[in-house]
Specification:
Helices cover 48% and strands 15% of the residues. By secondary structure, it is α/β, with parallel strands linked by helices. Among the domains are: 2-255, 3-Layer(aba) Sandwich (Rossmann fold); 417-468, no CATH class. A hairpin with a 2-residue loop joins strand 14 (455-460) and strand 15 (463-468). It is elongated and about 90 Å long. It comes from Alkalicella caledoniensis.
Length: 470
């Protein structure tokens, strides 16, 4: 397996610190609002990566934090007339509702910044003791010029970084690139006691503290959106490695930007799309499919047309799987020749080759775009076979392949198959009775009713057969 390491700017063989175990930390949301489709791509893609690692036999300890104290939270809470804690707790509930609708699985641990104040203070004290941090005014800053290698993740030197984006201007800093570790309390803001007076943690320090507490000093994978590489992840490296003198994360993975109608998404463009709103227009599985349809490092463009196409793709996958399930049940119930012909053997070989291709492309830096293409190759293979074949062993082999290729994509819409089949069989019986009584208008109406449900009927000498529309 190979992954692209942002730190080294190249594909590298994936080898964990501890055999068959992955310690993985991903920067989660700042919970002052619902999360948008760009955030969703980051959260979903890292969950897909996590699930694929599980599929490959790794024991994954996955941590994704909640930033529940921040300037944005304070401003929003004041606007709403609620406390920061009330706002954060409400938005965390909303996060899980939206994330789970997209089938993003919960992390093993979802720590909050406010629950790790003691750990944050301990790290800051350690950095001051090592001469890497200093008190400026009532705040505490990290001294970037004292950390050798600052800028190695973003690949820039200090002079270039000083003219970069998102640099906080503060007259209490020794250097422009120095960043705050502890902010002195302002009136009416949440605050905690510290050796430097009442205040609250800076943004960057919280992730170092939570990763260290729940995963240890060195981890295997650290991830987030591409926009976090600098300064957030750069600063995490400086804090964590400055304190421990050990590599912080072996591999750094970053998700590419999402655009809306070929424009960068953001407040300035007025085009931020919240998952909460998109769920009213598109099915969650269509959103999930769309977000996986490009390689995670590549930019992806959002449009209604692409989501409509994703809806059709998900429907096609599910129709094929449902037809396969029905064929397996029908084949198991009917006595028939189950001899495996040359055609059966060749079909199984082609299916096996698709499984091998799936692992090959996913082992190459988690290429979900090619992985989904292979899933559609399997859909075509199954649809072709179902037109003539009915060997139970071949059908079961196809089902196993389907479930293998869908393991981390998770696009199958679970249905209450028992109730659905009972309803279908009842309507077929009603139609047969209508035909017997020569009430062809009613019989046709029932056929059309089933067609509206995506079910077609075939009148054969041995009785009525039904299947879902391909």
């Amino acid at each position: 397996m190979k992954v692209y390491n942002t730190l080294e700017k190249k594909l590298e063989k994936f080898k964990t610190i501890e055999e068959n175990k992955v310690r993985m930390y991903v920067c989660g949301p700042t919970v002052y609002n619902y999360f948008h489709i760009g955030n969703a791509r980051t959260f979903l893609m890292f969950d897909v990566i996590r699930q694929y690692l599980v599929q490959r036999g790794y024991d994954v300890n996955y941590v994704q934090n909640f930033t529940d104290i921040d300037d944005k939270l304070i401003v929003k809470a004041n606007e709403m007339g609620v406390t920061v804690k009330e706002l954060a707790e409400d938005m965390i509930v909303n996060y899980f509702e939206d994330a789970r609708s997209l089938r993003i699985k919960d992390a093993i641990t979802h720590p909050k910044a406010t629950e790790n104040i003691e750990q944050i203070i301990d790290i800051i004290q350690g950095l001051i003791k090592k001469g890497l941090a200093y008190q400026g005014g009532e705040d505490v800053f990290f001294d970037t010029q004292k950390f050798y290698g600052y800028g190695k993740l973003s690949g820039q030197n200090l002079e270039k970084l000083e003219s970069g984006s998102r640099i906080e201007v503060d007259r209490n800093k020794k250097n422009p690139l120095d960043f705050v570790l502890w902010k002195a309390a302002k009136p009416s803001e949440p605050k905690w006691d510290s050796p430097w007076g009442e205040g609250r943690p800076g943004w960057h320090i919280e992730c170092s503290a939570m990763s260290r507490r729940y995963l240890g000093e060195s981890i295997d994978i650290h991830g987030g959106g591409e926009d976090l590489a600098f300064p957030h992840h750069e600063n995490e490296i400086a804090q964590s490695e400055g304190l421990s003198d050990k590599p912080f994360s072996k591999y750094w993975l970053h998700i590419g930007f999402l655009q809306i109608e070929n424009k960068k998404m953001g407040k300035s463009e007025g085009n931020s799309l919240m998952v909460r709103d998109l769920r009213k227009k598109f099915t969650p599985l269509a959103l999930r499919f769309f977000l996986m349809s490009a390689h995670y490092r590549s930019p992806i463009n959002f449009s209604d047309e692409l989501l409509e196409s994703a809806e059709r793709s998900v429907e096609r996958i599910n129709t094929c799987y449902t037809n396969l399930q029905h064929a397996i049940k029908s084949s198991a119930m009917v006595s028939q020749n189950q001899i495996e012909t040359k055609n059966e053997t060749e079909t199984v070989k082609r299916v096996d080759s698709l499984i091998e291709k799936y692992y090959t492309v996913m082992d190459n830096d988690f290429n979900t775009a090619d992985g989904l293409s292979i899933l559609f190759e399997l859909v075509r293979e199954v649809n072709t076979y179902l037109k003539e074949g009915s060997n139970i062993n071949t059908l079961n082999h196809m089902q196993t392949a389907f479930e293998t290729l869908n393991f981390c994509f998770d696009l199958i819409q679970e249905k209450d198959s028992k109730n659905l089949e009972e309803e279908i069989e009842s309507l077929i019986e009603e139609r047969q009775l209508a035909r017997k009584e020569r009430d062809f208008q009613k019989a046709d109406a029932i056929r059309n009713q089933l067609l509206d449900k995506g079910i077609i009927l075939e009148d054969t000498p041995s009785g009525v057969r039904w299947k879902f529309v391909e």
